[in-house]
Amino acid sequence: MLESGCKAVKEGMLEKRSDGLLQLWKKKRCILTEEGLLLIPPKQPPPPQQQQQQPAPPAEPAAKIKELHFSNMKTVDCVERKGKYVYFTVVMAEGKEIDFRCAQEQGWNAAITLQMVQYKNRQAILAVRSTRQKQQHLAAPHGPR
């Protein structure tokens, strides 16, 4: 998704529940594109002693960026609205569940769902066109007899 130059549909902060034992909520900078969701660790300034000694390392190394591509996404389930948050789960094709939360007015769950449905619709249209082209190609050489 990064390399393909997809335009951002929505950008902002989301909180993701960690996979660890404590399951802490960690803020992630998120970019929603037409292809999926990018999760980027929030920028952290380098410690003051590093600033004079050497140039700062890149704030967002590519290895830290997590891509949730719509081709690997099954559903977005809205779990509950509680207090100021909406809690929702992204279910991946292999069964992995990733929990998120955001302020209710941000509407991340709706935006992700809408983009995923549009992506799946585009893929279905391409599949139908491809099937039709194959059928026409197979039928063309024989011609009427």
From TrEMBL:
> What would you give as a GO molecular function for this chain, any one?
phosphatidylinositol phosphate binding
First-listed, main subcellular location of the protein, grouped into a coarse class = cytoplasm
| Composition bias, Pro residues | 42-60
What sections of the protein cross the membrane?
Answer: none
GO biological process, alphabetically ordered: positive regulation of apoptotic process
Q: Does the keyword ATP-binding apply?
A: no
Instruction: Check the record and name the Gene3D superfamilies matching this protein.
Output: Pleckstrin-homology domain (PH domain)/Phosphotyrosine-binding domain (PTB)
| PH domain location | 8-119
| GO cellular component terms attached to this protein's record | cytoplasm; nucleus
Q: Which UniProt keywords apply?
A: Cytoplasm
**Compartments, as annotated in UniProt:** Cytoplasm
Extract the ranges annotated as region (Disordered).
Answer: 39-61
PANTHER family on file: PLECKSTRIN HOMOLOGY-LIKE DOMAIN FAMILY A MEMBER 1 (PTHR15478:SF4), PLECKSTRIN HOMOLOGY-LIKE DOMAIN, PQ-RICH PROTEIN (PTHR15478)
Question: In its UniProt entry, what is this protein called?
Answer: PHLA1 protein
Q: What is the lineage of its organism?
A: Eukaryota, Metazoa, Chordata, Craniata, Vertebrata
* Gene for this chain: Phlda1
